[in-house]
Amino acid sequence: MTADHMANTDARVDAAALAEFTAEHGGDLPPIAIVIAAYNEERGIGDVVSAIPAVIAGHDTATVVVVDGASDDTAAVARKAGALVCDVPVNRGQGAALRLGYRIARAGGARYIVTTDADGQYDPADIERILTPVLRGEADFVTGSRVLGRQETYDRVRRLGVHVFARMISLLTGQRITDTSFGMRAMRAEVTGAVTLKQPQYQSSELLIGVISRGYKVVEVPATMRLRVAGTTKKGGNLVYGYRYLRVVLGTWLRERRGAAPSGPSMASGPSASPGSASSSSSASPAEPARGSAKTK
Fold first, then answer.
1. pLDDT digits (tens, 9 = 90+) for 28-59
2. CA-to-CA distance for 145 and 153, rounded, in angstroms?
3. What is the DSSP letter of 122?
4. Looking at the domain assignment, is residue 264 inside a domain?
5. What is the CATH number of the domain that holds 144?
6. DSSP character at residue 75
7. Most exposed: 1, 52, 150, 274, by fewest CB within 10 Å?
8. How many Å apart are CA 139 and CA 268, to the nearest integer?
9. What gap in Å lies between CA 210 and CA 236, rounded to an integer?
10. Do 265 and 272 form a contact (C-beta atoms < 8 A)?
11. pTM score, two decimals?
12. How far apart (Å, rounded) are the C-alpha atoms in residues 153 and 149?
């Protein structure tokens, strides 16, 4: 299957999923969209969704769960917990699911997007702390950091990998980063439409490098990385994960350098992040349906 064919297939899947989501939930979302990609997480997703605040810093939230071709009851459990579910029939990977979630949030008029994982490794109590710099206009993109905060894992290889990749991306981008793969992040919604996102799975570094490359203000805040509450990782063991993550880091960095373009505007106050090269914005997608009223919990 060629890259163009895969891209066209993805576009059709996304368009159909977005249309179905809008028909089920309406089009309008509150200011804050919490986006979660989930694949076979029926044992943990309910507790994750239930713990997300309905209001953060005076702003209403909606939790959008993109179920990525799950073969279990992830979608039903997430709905019962109060999430707005986009149930995609094919498994394409976390990166593809998050891209669709970002698009749903933008189409619904959400001003801010927060991501977290479906496995309970991130503490919902950290959401407001991570989102606050964006709400205050002090940053365009904020990522939590287990290095600045706390992590419960005793896996020495995983801990070493976090430091190695943080050092690598810091050197490549010119901005000091302590944790490149922390899954709880907050950003202005439009940032997700201004970066090139193509990775089907290991998307955390692709998004981070893309945001820095366009000159957006990036901030890290201390956060907690807990042990997975249920299920198993879908990304392989440490060696497989490390190899694939490295490929994405280097591939994204080279792509950004080759496609050098003016950096995107930062709306945050204060000194901006060190800008690098930038490539064109993410590929155009089919027109998004008109918005109606979303049914939030």
1. 999 999 999 999 999 999 999 999 999 999 99
2. 14
3. B
4. no
5. 3.90.550.10
6. H
7. 1
8. 5
9. 25
10. no
11. 0.86
12. 13
